[in-house]
Structures are given as C-alpha cells and as structure tokens.
C-alpha cells in the first residue's frame, strides 16, 4: 500500500502569512468548500480545517480590552462540520475600514451598468465582479435598481459588435442642417459631453474622421466589410468637435469660472476680452439649434452678444420654453 506523504508543518511566520491571505479569501467568496480552499493554497485540507478553527477564536478586543462575541470571527459551525463548507458569519478588524453607504454603492453600481454598454468596456465580467463587490462591501444593502435603456443603448450595442468583429458600421445620419445621409464608418471611440453621446469614427463617405451624435443615428447595422482604420492608426484631435468653414461664429459673454466649459467650442486664437467677472470671446457652432442647446446647458453663466440673429433665435427659443411652463396646469 502506498504511503501518503504528510504535509510539512508550517512555521510560525508561514502560518501568520497564510492566515493573512486566508481571511480575505474567505470573505471574498462568502461560501466555499474546504477542498476548494485547499486546492487554491495547495495545502492539505486538514490544514485548512485547523486554520479555520484558529480564525474562529481570533479577533480584536473591544473597548473593555476583553474579547466579547462581536470582537471575534465566527463561522457557520453546522455547515463546517457536516458539509465541509466555510461561511464566515461574523467578521472583525477588516470590517473596521470605511465603507460606502447604500446610496453611494447604488450610484456607483448604476454608473457601472451604464458604462458596461460602451464598446471599449469589452471585459464585462470584470465590471459585473466589481458591482458584486460594491453590493457586498456597502454598509447596507444597496437599493435594487436598473438603468433604463434608450435608443442610444441599442446603437452602442451595435458599435460594440462592430468593434469586436472588426467590421464597419452603417447607419442613416441626420446632419446639422437637416439632411439625412447613409454613412459607413470605422468606429474609433465613443465619448460623452453632458447628457449626449458621440461616436468618433473614420467616415468612408468623407474619407476623414467625423463625429456623430448617437441620437441622430437611425437604422444602424453591422456590415460585413472589414474596417480599414483603427484608433491606433488615426490621430484623433483632443477636442470633440472640429471647426468647419460653414460654422456659425457667435460672440458670447461667459463667467470666468465657467469659461473652461466652452473650451471645445472656442476656436484656436480666438480673442478674449476681460470684462467685470466675465470674458467675451467667440464660439463656433454648426447651426443655431446647436447654439440653443449650448446656451441651455449654461443658464445664467453665458449670454449671446452677437450677431443679432443669434440673440433673436436664442431669446425666442427661451421665451417659448418659459411659455410652456405658464400653460401647464397647476
């Protein structure tokens, strides 16, 4: 009969190092078998059982400098002795670190759910794992929630498919001046500004990099044509929007503290005149509709100065919006 080789006993320093690794491992997994832990640490299962029994009488003394129940680790003993399963039912010391509140964890989980839809976040298992850790590590159970899907989410999903397959994306696009064209694009990057999402890609119709707002994309589909440009092959400008000869040039006054919010719209070399607490400069926009959206995002901090047509358009649009509040039933 073959003789089973007995595991070499651990030295004190080795045992301490082992326990410092074992406790976080058990906390991370909530429920785990003795065999699985032994396989992970490559030790004899009986060593794991001995270590668990030692953990169960370990802890940190409280304010009285005596060990009370809540100052010690504890395990589900019935599960341990009858099923060889390890479940920590009381944790100490490690739990003293600051934790997210339930509301904070919920907000972070919602953000991760939203970001997981972006094509560059291909490793969704890692995102899911992080959400699980946030739920488990919060001071209380986070509120159940889900991020509502939009039409842009469907487009993001197709962009992800296009990137993963290395093929071009086709869609109808409503341009800044109201024209609709069929575009064929190599997706390069998805970015956001305020509440809007944009796709930056190599446009085969224009033979150049172009920026597309996702809510203006319709009837998207993944083609079978391989992409010819990748993000590493193309020099993407730092700013989201590139100026065009057809852009509208508008003079605005903006609070000094908010001027940075217009950085993507201010052309290089634009004059800046310092006023009392404000700066007067110019911005370039594709059309007046874009100007209205820009001003709506900066209420009370930015004002259109000229041309007169731009002031009129923005003023009429603001007045129409205010009138709708007056007409609303009270």
UniProtKB/TrEMBL annotation:
Residue span, PafC HTH domain: 14-136
Tree of life domain: Bacteria
Residue ranges annotated for the WCX domain, each copy included: 250-320
Keywords, alphabetical: Proteasome
GO CC terms: proteasome complex
Coiled coil: none
Ranges of residues in domain WYL: 154-219
Protein name: Proteasome accessory factor C
Naturally occurring in which organism (per UniProt): Conyzicola lurida
